[in-house]
Specification:
Structural class: alpha/beta
Pfam family, one: Thioredoxin
Largest sheet: 5 strands, mixed
Strand content: 15-25%
Keywords: Redox-active center, Repeat, Signal
Shape: flat
Family: Belongs to the protein disulfide isomerase family.
Order of helices and strands: EHEHEEHEHEHEHEEHEHEHEHEEH
GO cellular component, one term: endoplasmic reticulum
Protein name: Thioredoxin domain-containing protein
Radius of gyration: 23 Å
Number of strands: 14
Distance between the termini: 51 Å
Helix content: 25-40%
């Protein structure tokens, strides 16, 4: 994603620190995303060719395409990351068979089924369904996308098998229910039950062989699909709608994050350890909020999230403090303990 700037532009200067944060989050070695900028005072021809008439102009470019998609939203970090998320999700629906610039495949014409919270249960309830759980920002998912589409095309005329995908940044609850902890996760369902997880090579031939093997008649699994709420999670996945109820009593320590953010990824295992430390402690909750999810985006703006991760502590429904110290387990737990009632000072 690129923004066209003019060095005396006030709007450009105000955007600059946010753009630097976005670059720090996404410009990592294992990422297929690059955040860049062009100074239109020194590269006027580039800006003219791209029809830049005002500053800053923000555009998203896909590999091999000269025409970018113009960003028109508010220039805060959650909105920018959500825009990138949407563009990457849309790129999953491109026809990779065309040697020229890819043309979008209409959902209704595609053999690859797009799942969401409205059709997921109904689709997996009957027959055999092979589902890719993915995140648009995930490089491995992006590399698998054309092969997964080819697999769907290969199975298009087999009425007993469906190849599908679901975006875990949009439908986190479904992915959490099925214990999805990394991307892509490829799960096989039969008549509403999860009966297999694919872990082999991701070539079309290997995936086809797995489908052929799994589609044979086998005894039905004894274990039932795990239902939401059956397993207690040490870190609560919070949403805007339920946030007020979650924090209304006791101490709640919340990580506002973005899945793309390198600092967030490095904090994640420590945050899980923190959640486990307090999971049996009365009056203490450890939570997290994904600010790239559509329903959380405006809420994160209201919470004045200016960078990721942002760590806020709430007490009895009120925001008390923002944590800015070291992100080691001991330092984080010391911060929580300091805010607990009846804390004894040494």
């Amino acid at each position: 994603m690129t923004y066209m700037t003019f060095n005396r532009c006030g709007h450009c200067q105000r955007l600059s620190p946010t753009w630097e944060q976005l670059a720090e989050m996404l410009n990592e070695d294992d990422s297929n995303i690059r955040i860049a900028k062009v100074d239109c005072t020194t590269d006027a021809k580039i800006c003219s060719d791209q029809d830049v008439t005002g500053y800053p102009t923000l555009k998203f470019y896909k590999v091999g395409q000269e025409e970018g998609v113009r960003f028109k939203g508010t220039r805060d970090l959650p909105t920018l990351t959500n825009f990138i998320n949407e563009q990457l999700r849309l790129s999953e629906d491109y026809d990779y068979d065309n040697d020229e610039a890819p043309k979008a495949v209409k959902h209704q014409e595609s053999p690859l089924k797009e799942l969401d919270d409205k059709n997921f249960d109904a689709l997996i309830e009957k027959g055999k369904v092979f589902v890719k759980f993915y995140a648009p920002w995930c490089g491995h998912c992006q590399r698998l996308a054309p092969t997964w589409l080819d697999l769907a095309k290969a199975m298009e005329f087999d009425d007993g098998i469906t190849v599908a995908k679901i975006d875990c940044t949009e439908y986190k609850g479904i992915c959490s229910d099925h214990d999805v902890k990394g991307y892509p996760t490829l799960l096989w369902f039969e008549n509403g039950q999860k009966v297999g997880k694919y872990s082999g090579d991701r070539t079309l031939e290997d995936l086809k062989e797995y489908v052929n093997r799994m589609s044979g008649d086998r005894p039905k699994p004894k274990e039932k699909r795990q239902k939401p709420g059956e397993c207690k999670q040490p870190v609560i996945d919070m949403t805007a709608d339920a946030f007020a109820d979650e924090i209304k009593s006791g101490v709640t320590f919340v990580d506002f994050y973005s899945p793309w953010c390198g600092h967030c990824k490095r904090l994640a295992p420590t945050w899980e350890q923190l959640g486990k430390k307090y999971e049996d402690k009365e009056g203490v909750k450890i939570g997290k909020v994904d600010c790239t999810v559509t329903e959380n985006r405006e809420f994160c703006n209201e919470q004045e999230i200016e960078g990721f991760p942002s760590l806020f502590l709430y007490k009895d429904g009120q925001k008390i403090s923002e944590y800015s110290g070291n992100r080691e387990l001991e330092d984080l737990s010391d911060f929580v303990d300091k805010h607990l009632p009846q804390h004894d000072e040494l």
